[in-house]
Amino acid sequence: MLTRACALAFASVALSLGSYPCAVAQGPIAPSDANDRYLWLEDVSSPRSMAWVKAEDARTAKVLEADPRFAQFQAAALKIAESPDRLAIPSLRGSEVYNFWRDAANPHGLYRKTTLANYLATAKTGSPDWKTVVDFDALGKGDGERWVSKGFSCLYPGDQYCMVNLSAGGEDAVTSREFDLKAGTFVAGGFTVPHSKQSVSWKDKDTLLIARDWGPGTMTKSGYPFVVKEWKRGTPLDSAKEVFRGAESDEVGASGNTVHDAQGHALTIFRRGVTFFSAEYSVQTPKGLQPLAIPAKARPREMLDGRLLVDVNEDWSPENSKKARVFKAGSILDLKVADVLRDPTHLKPEVVFEPTAQEFSEGGASTRNTLLVTTLNHVQGRAYVYTPGPKGWTRKQLPVPENVTVGIVSANNTDDTFFLSITGFLTPTSLYLGDAAAATLTVEKTEPARFDASKDVVEQLEATSKDGTKVPYFVVHRRDMKYDGSNATLLTAYGGFEVAQTPRYSGTTGKLWLERGNVYVLANIRGGGEFGPAWHEAGLKTKRQVIYDDFAAVGQDLIARKITSTPHLGIEGGSNGGLLMGVEMTQHPTLWGAIVIQVPLLDMLRFEHIAAGASWVGEYGSVSKPDERAFLEGISPYNQLKPDVTYPEPLIFTTTKDDRVGPQHARKFAAKMEEYGKPFYFDEITEGGHAAGADAKEESRTAAETYVYLSRKLMN
After folding, report:
1. Of 109, 186, 353, 503, which alpha carbon lies 20 to 30 A from 345's?
2. Nearest to 504 by CA among 582, 422, 568, 436
3. Collapsing DSSP states into helix, strand and coil, what is residue 76?
């Protein structure tokens, strides 16, 4: 399956912590950087940098970890994270179910399996008869590494042979090793691809398509590989033959993948990531490698019944098409694989799904005979089954509850079985077993409640942004909440990369925040994907100020409604959301009572030279263009800090092994605050990559620190 390009996402410790691609190193120094006093902190592991980090960590820990609530919060968060009765999320592979599981005895996790029949038989009454496939703690101990799983890439059909991706401490660079799922062992003498930022996929049982660091001149400036090679079993890796090449100037990189359907069709596709949002695709045909004439802002997603399914994120009128038709941005289209192999430059797309003014595609996956599609209808989850036929596609809506988020957990390619997840702010996540052929759903298991939500309600409200745009947001609060401005309120958003933020259950947020009578707010600001491609593109590059205006408008609306007030209003966000927090801090310093800034971008004049920053020019713009540089300088939190302004005292969190955004932004921002005599808290943990930690204990510690900080600022 080809999946949506990874976003720069860290949904915050209050929600979920993402993991996406890059390289941590100090970039080139331009003459314009000569006055940057803190360039030395970009040298990630230098003794001087690490001494500064350790001193700041100790200062913060002395305050926050000494708070009597810290130990209580950490224990509560860890209990939830390691609870033995939490949902075992299933991954369907034929008649078997696989699951990744972490607990106190296995902090880095087990990959385990059982039969589907056993999983279903015990879903409501007990624990399935799990058999361990990979013990990552034991594997790491034997290898002398702290291995973190980055997933499996398995050979179709049968899924017997898989490439297991292993990360040292949570970073995005991985080592890939061949594993036999049926035998439960690594393959002796099998494929092993050494540590690198890399893409590894199966072409056939004896052939891998690999994009990695092949040496000088094979990586883009953002740290991604742009040369794809074909590696044959039994030959040295350095004998692999180049089969596709992007360009060193590409913002992202290149990859190759062979997609299949259950009817026996196969298609090898190569992707050149020109920017984060645009790509060029080529397909292997009987006449050789040829361009696939889909728009730059499009991506193949599935193959089903001889049809290649493609998402298009821009309006498209195919060239040389006999039908003069414009396909709307946000549509899902199908292309007959036979037509693609015959002539990939003259395509005849047909519509599977077309967006409306309120409903937009969010996710999809194929079973043996159908396509599952989840959508957002005014940020409310919907799900459908699409079935191909000789006269086109038919659609049936699945019976999901109202006011929830719907997610596709796993779909089986050997039959029409699938699992959906249903979740909401106050609704513990449930797993539904689906039969796509019959378009039916059955509840199999629901996560036990982790906090008392009996006194709470959820509302969906709207704020009016500076330009008149209506911005929806969710508010979770006590049913008897007093509208007197006194409620401690945590507001979060993401606002970028077409990532939609939707309701979901978080036991940690509920236990450490909502159960104590506080308010939680999720804002659906522009830049995200809640209302399709146009909602995202409204805030691209120099248009980005609307994102920050939207967020401020929600904060102002909360105050105007007397839900909260500045002394009780805190904000939180990570990654691109961390940039959002930094901008809100510097643009509206008197609006917020507390600010949590997690694994952030903050120096927007240097972001292209730090970690994978060069891959996000499509989102933010580039300092190489005068108009974009001027805008970036105007919103860059690091550059907009002023010595004569009073700011809220923020909590700044990052990790040394974040090889996507890098810890440099957080360090430099904190150091400049220190220079200006501004108070702040700073915490940099070593492992975890672009997340809150490499295991449940680290993640629970981060959560405890965050909620102690918010409690001190907004409740005390």
Report:
1. 353
2. 422
3. helix
Catalytic residue among 331, 410, 506, 575: 575
Cβ neighbours of residue 585 under 8 Å, at least 6 residues apart? 592, 595, 597, 637, 647, 648, 650
71 membership: H or E segment, kind and range: helix 68-81
Q: How far apart are CA 413 and CA 327, in angstroms?
A: 29
CB 528 within 8 A of CB 494: yes
Look at residues 460, 484, 465 and name the one whose alpha carbon lies nearest to residue 565.
Answer: 484
Catalytic residue among 108, 609, 665, 690: 690
**Residue carrying structure tokens 């694989």:** 337
At 543-597, the pLDDT tens digits run 999 999 999 999 999 999 999 999 999 999 999 999 999 999 999 999 999 999 9
DSSP assignment, residue 459?
Answer: E
Alpha carbon of 409 to those of 383, 421, 507: distances in Å? 12, 6, 19
Average pLDDT over residues 204-227: 97
Quickly name the fold that domain 450-714 has. Rossmann fold (3.40.50)
Segment 279-319, tens digit of pLDDT: 999 999 999 999 999 999 999 989 999 999 999 999 999 97
Token pair belonging to 522:
């999720």
Residue with tokens 């009987």: 286
Residue 665 annotated among the catalytic residues of the structure:
no
Burial class (CB in 10 A: 0-12, 13-18, 19+), 457: middle
Compute φ and ψ for 569, nearest 5 degrees.
Answer: -105, 115
In the predicted model, is pLDDT for residue 161 greater than 60? yes
Three-state secondary-structure class, residue 609 = helix
CB atoms near residue 427 (< 10 Å): 20
535 phi and psi angles, rounded to 5 deg: -65, -35
What is the predicted pLDDT for the residue at 169?
Answer: 87
H-run or E-run covering 256: strand 254-260
Q: Kindly state the percentage of the chain with pLDDT values over 70.
A: 95
Amino acid 290: pLDDT: 98
156: Cβ–Cβ under 8 A, 6 or more apart, which residues? 202, 258, 260, 413
Q: Which of 697, 702, 708, 659 is nearest to 45 (CA)?
A: 659
Residue 8 has pLDDT above 60, yes or no: no
Distance CA 649, CA 106 (A): 37
Confidence of residue 15 (pLDDT cuts 50, 70, 90): very low
Residue 162 pLDDT exceeds 80: yes
Residue 506 annotated in active site = no
* Phi and psi at residue 239, to the nearest 5°: -95, 0
